[in-house]
Design brief:
Elements (H helix, E strand, L loop, with lengths): L8 E8 L12 E2 L3 E16 L5 E17 L4 H9 L3 E11 L4 E2 L5 E5 L7 E10 L6 E2 L8 E4 L4 E5 L6 E18 L11 E10 L2 E16 L12 E7 L8 E5 L2
Parallel strand pairs: 9-10
Antiparallel strand pairs: 1-2, 1-13, 3-4, 4-15, 5-12, 6-12, 7-11, 8-12, 10-11, 13-14, 14-15, 14-16
Length: about 260
C-alpha cells in the first residue's frame, strides 16, 4: 500500500504531428510548474435484467481513459507537443508595446514621433494612439487634422500642429531577434489527422512511486490563457488516450507498494 501526494510529474513525447506523420526522434518534454493532474477510467456498464427489478449480470462495455492537467509555465515546444503538432519557427519574437508615460507633441507644422521598440526591436504594425483625455486619435492616410495621425512603415507618427503640447500614447507591435523565441502558426488545416503523444506520469510519497504510461494521447482542449488582474494564468489541457498502433495496449501502470 502507498499514498500519493502533490501534483506529480508529467512527461510527453510526440508520436504523430498534425498532418498524421510519424515524428522521428521527437524531443521529450517535461510539464513544468504542474499544479493539477487527473486521469479517469470510465466504463459503460451494461446491465442484463430478467422479469424482476434487479440485474442478473453487469458487464463493462466501452472504457474511456481521459484526464486533465494544469501547468503554469508556458513553453513553445511543450504546447506544440501537447496540442498543435505543427512546425514552428525560432529566433524572432513579436510583441506589443503600449505607451504608458506618454509623448508630448512639440512640432510647429506637423509633430513627428518615432516609435522606439524595446530592446532594439523593429516596428511592425500600428496599434492605435490614445490622447491624454482618453479619446482615440483617428488614423488617416495623409495630411492629419486635429485629433488625427498618420504612421509610416518605419514607425514615424505624424500629428497636426493644432495638437501641439498635447500628450499622446501610441501603441504598436514590433519584432525582435531572440534565439529562444518560438512562433507557432495556427493554420486552418483539414480535419481528421491529429497530433498524438506518449505520456508518462509519476507520483510519489515517502520514497514509494507510481508510474502510469499511456501509449497514445490526444488533447481535446487547450485552455491557453485564463488571466486575472491579480493572479497567474494557468494553462489547462484536457486529453483522451487510445491504444497503440497494434490496437492491443493503451498503457501500463506500475505501483511500488
Amino acid at each position: 500500500m502507498q499514498l500519493t501526494f502533490g501534483s506529480g510529474e508529467v512527461f510527453a513525447q510526440m508520436i504523430t504531428d498534425a498532418y498524421g506523420n510519424r515524428v522521428q526522434n521527437a524531443t521529450p518534454v517535461r510539464i513544468m510548474g504542474l499544479q493539477e493532474m487527473s486521469v479517469d477510467l470510465s466504463a459503460e456498464l451494461k446491465e442484463f435484467y430478467g422479469q424482476n427489478r434487479y440485474p442478473l449480470a453487469v458487464a463493462q462495455g466501452k472504457v474511456k481513459v481521459s484526464g486533465k492537467m494544469k501547468g503554469a509555465l508556458i513553453n513553445g515546444l511543450t504546447l506544440n507537443t501537447l496540442f498543435f503538432g505543427t512546425e514552428y519557427a525560432t529566433g524572432t519574437m513579436k510583441a506589443l508595446w503600449a505607451e504608458t508615460t506618454g509623448k508630448v507633441l512639440d512640432g510647429d507644422n506637423y509633430s513627428y514621433l518615432q516609435a522606439a521598440a524595446p530592446g532594439g526591436g523593429k516596428f511592425a504594425e500600428d496599434a492605435g494612439v490614445m490622447g491624454q483625455d482618453g479619446t482615440a486619435y483617428i488614423k488617416v492616410a495623409s495630411s492629419p487634422k486635429q485629433g488625427q495621425y498618420t504612421v509610416s512603415d518605419a514607425g514615424v507618427y505624424a500629428f497636426n500642429s493644432s495638437d501641439k503640447g498635447k500628450t499622446v500614447y501610441p501603441s504598436f507591435t514590433y519584432t525582435q531577434t531572440m534565439p529562444p523565441a518560438k512562433k507557432i502558426e495556427l493554420t486552418n488545416m483539414a480535419t481528421g489527422n491529429t497530433p498524438t503523444f506518449k505520456m508518462r506520469y509519476l507520483t510519489q510519497f515517502k520514497g514509494k512511486k507510481a508510474l502510469l504510461e499511456l501509449e497514445s494521447v490526444t488533447s481535446g482542449k487547450l485552455g491557453l490563457f485564463s488571466t486575472k488582474n491579480d493572479d497567474f494564468s494557468v494553462p489547462e489541457i484536457d486529453f483522451t488516450a487510445s491504444t497503440d498502433e497494434a490496437g492491443f495496449k493503451i498503457g501500463t501502470l506500475w505501483i511500488q507498494e
